[in-house]
């Protein structure tokens, strides 16, 4: 027969079992990461998570998906189907693909030129929905870049802009950049780049004071 003291000791130990069990099955967070290809920002993101106590392979699992010139849509479908806790979308094409597929999973955007102009969020102060992150404000920066270029090279008259028509930010960026270039007297052309390895091909030509046409 078990003695009274032994029973009390056993009972006291049992009281700690739920906490011990909880510690052993602590949640492992799963983050989906969607981008065109590997970049330095990927490692910076992981290092920042480590500083916050989230360590890949320990209490965190990173699920990377690289488009590599292919479809962002299929990869976004895969991440949503895996029911990850969070999706990081690098760039506008990745953001658009994920946004169109979930309103439930939180989305953090990186490297998006102007999420308001592209229709991803309502405003920077109050994005609403399930998207947050950083804006690069490329429309404004692009215009400033043209202005600085003219100051540095006042005799320059021709400008070439590389763009990707599949990027949802391209129309907004081109409108602001081409408008600023035209005002400063540039003859502007832009060439389409579909991927890092694709051939660059001329799509449109914009002359001073005129509208871009196909």
List keywords for this structure.
single chain, 214 residues, alpha/beta, 2 domains
**Rounded radius of gyration (Å):** 25 Å
DSSP summary: helix tally: 7
| Strand proportion | 15-25%
Spatial order of the strands forming the largest sheet: 2-1-3-4-5
User: How many discrete structural domains?
Assistant: 2
Structural class: alpha/beta
Give a written overview of the molecule:
This protein folds into 2 domains: 27-135, Rossmann fold; 138-206. The protein is built from 7 helices and 8 strands, in the order H-H-E-H-E-H-E-H-E-E-H-E-H-E-E. The longest helix is centred in the last third of the chain and has 15 residues, at 138-152. Helix 7 (170-183) links the parallel strand 6 (158-163) and strand 7. The strands form 2 sheets. The protein has a 5-stranded parallel sheet with strand order 2-1-3-4-5, covered by helices on one side. Helix 4 crosses helix 5 and helix 6 (138-152) packs parallel to helix 7. By secondary structure, it is α/β, with parallel strands linked by helices. The protein is 36% helix and 22% strand.
Quick synopsis:
This protein is an alpha/beta fold and 214 residues long.
Task: Show the helix and strand layout.
Elements (H helix, E strand, L loop, with lengths): L3 H11 L2 H8 L4 E7 L4 H12 L8 E7 L5 H10 L4 E5 L1 H8 L7 E6 L18 E5 L2 H15 L5 E6 L6 H14 L3 E6 L8 E6 L8
Parallel strand pairs: 1-2, 1-3, 3-4, 4-5, 6-7
Antiparallel strand pairs: 7-8
Helix pairs in contact: 4-5, 6-7
């Amino acid at each position: 027969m078990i003695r009274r003291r032994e029973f009390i000791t056993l009972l006291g130990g049992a009281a700690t079992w739920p906490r011990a069990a909880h510690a052993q099955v602590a949640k492992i967070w799963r983050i989906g990461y969607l981008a065109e290809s590997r970049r330095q920002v990927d490692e910076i993101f992981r290092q920042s998570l480590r500083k916050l106590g989230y360590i890949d392979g320990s209490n965190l699992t990173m699920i990377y998906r690289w488009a590599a010139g292919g479809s962002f849509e299929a990869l976004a479908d895969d991440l949503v189907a895996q029911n990850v806790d969070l999706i990081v979308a690098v760039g506008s094409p990745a953001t658009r693909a994920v946004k169109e597929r979930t309103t439930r999973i939180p989305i953090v955007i990186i490297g998006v030129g102007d999420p308001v102009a592209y229709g991803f969020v309502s405003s920077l102060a109050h994005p609403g929905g399930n998207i947050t992150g950083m804006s690069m404000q490329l429309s404004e920066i692009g215009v400033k870049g043209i202005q600085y270029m003219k100051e540095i090279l006042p005799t320059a008259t021709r400008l070439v802009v590389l763009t990707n028509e599949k990027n949802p930010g391209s129309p907004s960026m081109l409108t602001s950049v081409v408008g600023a270039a035209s005002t400063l007297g540039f003859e502007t052309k832009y060439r389409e780049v579909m991927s890092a390895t694709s051939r660059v091909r001329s799509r449109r030509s914009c002359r001073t004071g005129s509208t871009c046409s196909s």
